[in-house]
Amino acid sequence: MADYDYEQMLADHLRSMAEMQAAPFPSAPMLYGEQPRRCPVCRRWARDLSNRRLNTMYVEDASNWMLSCSGCYEMAYRNYADQWAEYWMMVM
Ligand SMILES: [Zn+2]
Prior knowledge:
Elements: H1 6-22, E1 37-38, E2 45-46, E3 50-53, E4 65-68, H2 70-91
Antiparallel strand pairs: 1-2, 3-4
Bound molecules: zinc ion (ZN).
């Protein structure tokens, strides 16, 4: 964590913010077909379970992915976006 390039991170952050605002909500290919399955996060039955990339920057890339229904994913995604906004407010 000590050797982050903050200028590069800021540039990446601003670019991804612009991309997020420009692009429709990110979607991922369906991995589990149309059969309803339980979302591991909210435990509800869902037809849209998928493993999606989150807006996190964990070094271990597996931690940047979330298997869930689209509702849980959207909530997590927005939550992380808020945390990034707070983080950059404090850093800058
Ligand atoms: Zn869910």
